[in-house]
Amino acid sequence: MRLRPAPLEDWLRDYYFTAEIDISSSGVEPYSMTWLRQTTGLGYDEIDTLVFDDGYSLGAPPVRQVIADRWGDGDARKVMTTSGSSEAITLVLTALLEAGDRVVVVEPGYHSLVRFAEGLGCDTVTWRLDADAGFTPSLDELAELVDERTRAIIVNFPQNPTGVSITEPELRRLVAIAEGAGAYLLWDAAFADLTYETAPLPCVSTLYSRGIGFGTFSKAFGLPGLRFGWCLAPPEVLAGCVRVRDYTTLHVAPLIELLALRVLENADAFIGPRRERARANRELLRRWAQADPERVSLRLPDGGVAAFPRLLGLGDTYEFCDKLFLDRGVLVIPGSCFGAPEHIRVGFGGPTEALAEGLDRLSAALSDSSLRERSAW
């Protein structure tokens, strides 16, 4: 197996911990342990009596049941808990795919969903979202890419980094396209609970026998440091995941699952406040883009807390983003990390004051003609 470098992680590895103002993240502002304990009622007695024994290969039964009840069809046999959704995605892809399998991926997109299948030797076919059409997904184009040789379709809506989504009727058509080819439909639902104009889409695992959904604490829950995620999949697929996990992580740590259970039992208390702040920040982002139409073109995100504006006049934003960080202390993500170099990823899930200041500094940098000229070299 040969994996390409992940440009997003390479960029964040250098800058993430030293940024003065971070408006790059695709997640909401993280919560503290104090908030978690106060919100869930978790007492020190529960923590103190925890025994650090080995855990279940598929996850602790109570945790799996809560996930099945909230996002699945209530059948906990279809749930596996993981170390973040990245592990879930890795396990499923490794268990399902072989070299030569035909797999449809979406670009621009998150590297785990785009490149991992390549590393397994699969024949990847790109469903490219058109920037000139505001990244609106064309299901007609997808249908042309899928045939009887297609083993899997890998998507995520609302999407990272663009924030675009699809409607429930479109989701059902997507399911029909996968079903018609007998393909697995892998659905990264990291942003599922962060929608603004419509209700969250149902998990594909409840709509299709070969639908597989992934979830995580890293985005809507504001708990990226817990590294907790899950997948909902047919039991036979999860059995294959266990075979892979037996050689890697074995199980999720009991402490993490204890915290996860309490969070899941109080999910709305974590998601709700951050979603409402993101809604207000989304409006701030809209006003910012509208105020500078000669330099910024933005499709307002349907969901999630990541936007993907195009910086007009810059063929490649990489050097601009580098100078923005070094000269003004503001962290954003160059679009080249997602295969769309004219764009940048801006996160709007954090504190409103930081977003406002970051956008002001970004505007100042765009107005700096010398910086713009250097960025265009």
From TrEMBL:
Top-level taxon of the source organism: Bacteria
Entry GO MF terms: pyridoxal phosphate binding; transferase activity
A Pfam short name: Aminotran_1_2
Keyword annotations: Pyridoxal phosphate
Gene3D superfamilies: Aspartate Aminotransferase, domain 1, Type I PLP-dependent aspartate aminotransferase-like (Major domain)
Record carries keyword Cytoplasm: no
Record's keyword annotation contains Glycoprotein: no
Necessary cofactors: pyridoxal 5'-phosphate
SUPFAM superfamilies for this protein: PLP-dependent transferases (SSF53383)
Residues covered by the Aminotransferase class I/classII large domain: 59-362
Family: Belongs to the class-II pyridoxal-phosphate-dependent aminotransferase family.
Protein name as it appears in the record: Capreomycidine synthase
Provenance organism: Actinoplanes italicus
Organism placement in taxonomy: Bacteria, Bacillati, Actinomycetota, Actinomycetes, Micromonosporales
